């Protein structure tokens, strides 16, 4: 649509040496909620996710599995596609770094960097962590009990000596600091921004951007003894997906630079330091924002294979329900902080907030309309100040929710919705329509109509977070499929009195403890 606002949001591309876990589900869920919100808010959205399939770690994992790298990555990449469908993500595209279009884009950005004088051939001597696909300076490492060098991530490092091409990262300190100063919202949250600026101010070494010791990767243009360093290859996926190197394409013109790269805090440096430097060096615009979120623990313990407590997204959805899990992950902790996944917290959120607060509000109001008004939406009469205040809260929440979503404060956006939920329940108790049914049926009708309108707004607002449940709630009010975007917030799209409503059914059932006393299974 000509003149329509655009929004390009990306997950990191997930490394295919292992099965998807809650960390992958969490990042993509956050992007999905924001992508859905922006679509409902009138934006032309492009939401990208995918898999990172090159590098020494993949080559070794494939070898350990007795498979060639391409067959290995085909299978694991499909696992991530399947998870996206299972979790009801709305991504517009799924990219794989083994696609031929990605090799062309990676070689194009390499060529641009080399032609602009930012890549040169030398010899690399230093510490490299295969698990992280990252190089580390000596002063970043600690020594393990067996004398091995350990990266800040906990990965073991090995000493590497080989011919290598280098990117002149050391020259980018001042340009990057100037860029951060001119774009204060580029890195979020603030604590992560401060960490990145401190790192860059500390001085940077030129970055090795090719390897010769393994072959599973994109060939360096003009020197097939080398393959591209996996992070230069991987980061380029964000522009591959919008048709780079064809900068005249419709996709590139509409969506680049990206509005938001969502990443885990462990890969922030690659996205907030290396990536803008690569892009500026190639004469391309950097993304507008990088947000680094925290990690999850499981019942207070760090999640790791050795502890056997990796959380399988499918297991928790099977236990608690899809929209319930989506709600919990974005509600439980301030987005950006670390969070703890516990069975008790999940059950409390489901039963207290979803079943008792929102679910009960919808169920008892619609049941009263069914019982007192023969299932027909009543015609409201004159409003009191209490009625106007209730509607104002319901319609006025939109601006607060929008502000929080633009800041990736998902928990605050949900809290703004729950302010309306709690106000709705308080309004029911104060107005007591069951008593008005006996004393003043015209007033009863007004109260029930105001409540139905409040529930309509709540159904609109929860769509990005719990799309299936929102659809059920809006169906119960006979809200048409063409009346569910955020243009319909407010009285201009109000429910039509006289509309026959279906028999109400619970949208958020309570979680019965006996059904899952042990919580979700551990893999």
Keyphrases for this structure?
19 strands; seven-stranded parallel beta sheet; alpha/beta; four-stranded antiparallel beta sheet; 18 helices; 523 residues; 15% strand; Isoleucyl-tRNA Synthetase, Domain 1
Structural description of this entry:
- The chain is of the alpha/beta class.
- It has a domain at about 345-495: Isoleucyl-tRNA Synthetase, Domain 1, CATH 1.10.730.10.
- It is about 45% helix and about 15% strand.
- Strand 7 (about 140-145) and strand 8 (about 150) form a beta hairpin.
- Helix 11 crosses helix 12 and helix 13 runs antiparallel to helix 17.
- The mean pLDDT is about 95.
Gap from first CA to last CA: 46 Å
Instruction: Tell me the β content.
Output: 15-25%
Backbone structural class: alpha/beta
Q: What is the 3D form?
A: elongated
| Structure annotation, total helices | 18
Annotated CATH homologous superfamily of the domain at 343-493? Isoleucyl-tRNA Synthetase, Domain 1
Q: What CATH architecture of the domain at 343-493 do you see?
A: Orthogonal Bundle
> Percent of residues in helical segments?
40-55%
Number of strands: 19
Averaged pLDDT: 93
How is the main sheet built?
7 strands, parallel
CATH fold-level assignment of the domain at 343-493? Isoleucyl-tRNA Synthetase, Domain 1
CATH class of the domain at 343-493: Mainly Alpha
Radius of gyration: 26 Å
pLDDT < 50 runs, ≥5 residues: none
Q: What is the quaternary state of this protein?
A: single chain
